[in-house]
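Folding problem:
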Amino acid sequence: MCNMNISQISSGMIEQSGALQQIGIAMLGKQLDAATSDGAMIAASLASMPSPSLESMVNPSVGGNIDLRI
């Protein structure tokens, strides 16, 4: 009788671990989808930013200050 109970318990644990593994895989898949969409949004926002002009790359301090006299 004891052997039968142990085999039933072990088969139940195997089934449960298989179900937990499938749940874990599904959750990782959703996280991968979210990370992919976040990456696409970041790439799109970077692409929409204006690129610096050649002058600002050569002389980065030009245009950064305003001199006022009263």
